[in-house]
Amino acid sequence: MKFNFSERLNKLPAYLFAEIDKMKAQVKAGGVDIISFGIGDPDLPTPKEIVDVLKKESEIDINQKYPSYEGLLGFRKSVSGWYNKRFGVSLDPGIEVLSLIGSKEGIGHLPLAFINPGDVVLIPDPGYPVYRAGTVFAGGIPYIMPLLEDNDFLPDFSRIPANILEKAKIMFLNYPNNPTSATADKYFFNEVVKFAKKNNIIVAHDFAYSEIYTGEKENDSFLSVNGAKDIGIEFNSLSKTFNMTGFRIGFAVGNEDVIKGLGAVKTNLDSGVFQAIQLSAAYGLDNEFHVVKDNNSIYKKRRGLLVEGLEKLGYKVYKSDATFYVWAHVPKINMTSKDFAMSLLNETGIIVTPGSGFGDYGEGYVRFSLTISENRIKEALIRMGA
Ligand SMILES: *Cc1c(COP(=O)(O)O)cnc(C)c1O
Questions:
Q1: Pick from 83, 77, 85: which is nearest to 207 by CA?
Q2: Most buried pick, 141, 173, 287, 372, via CB within 10 A?
């Protein structure tokens, strides 16, 4: 029997990393010790205090039942308390906070709540592939907003044609940005609010890297600017902040109607997050935590080491202090990012992510993830010829 995938599934771009995965297996089989800068998952452990809460709460029988759809009120209160303390944003935990099975889940499902076939969703490129997938699954049409280095990887709204704006219902944004590591400030977010209000567009800001910064300046929340809550929501996650990617817990906060729509989709598709996980996450958010500082000081050392080494090797690196990514130009002219990644892997056993995996405007760049130890970074630089 042969079963054909749906049109919506076939509409997604081909999996770019298949060839690289194949070459990785070959290089590994040849006995090479692979060093991977390809992993967007913290190597640092979940804090023991959080794991302890999970262990304890998982033994309590009410936590073993179906959770409430929108999340425990206690968890939502912890989110709202943290947003207030951290960003000065006030949120009603009853109607402006929704738990998610990781923020990826919420991002992927949001278009189902608001997009009719033919509606347009504005998507940054390069970007996290889930914005496009969620749009296509809902029958929406992705419209690419190029993120260019000349504009510090911020979209230029004045370039979006009027006929697109008429049909646009949602705009995804993501700062600090994966993969470019670019950040956005309140001035930009104010422009976003003006633009979205004028054109009646829901803003969905992906703030997964809110706590990852290696410089002095903390990252700004989209919701912290005036009027943002009138037109948008923010996705956030415990994944990167507390090294909890495997726990699968995140949340959406902001505009009541948007939260309600996303919640209605989820009520029909899932049954929420394991309560013991919600309680462990609430513990993390409630307690003044050393973990964010500790993580950032580790990422800072790694970033300094890698950027200095790459520059010595002749790479041109985009300067940023946020996320745990380093976004660099492909150092060879006339070589695609994929060909470069393949040849680097073949010659040195080092894995980097080709920029074209994040969209056409990622071409010409590669992404290094700072999720490996300083020793491994040093070893990689030596192999690359430093
Ligand atoms: C890691 C990441 C997420 C968060 O994923 P979770 O589902 O919360 O683990 C969201 N957006 C971007 C851009 C990411 O890199």
A1: 83
A2: 173
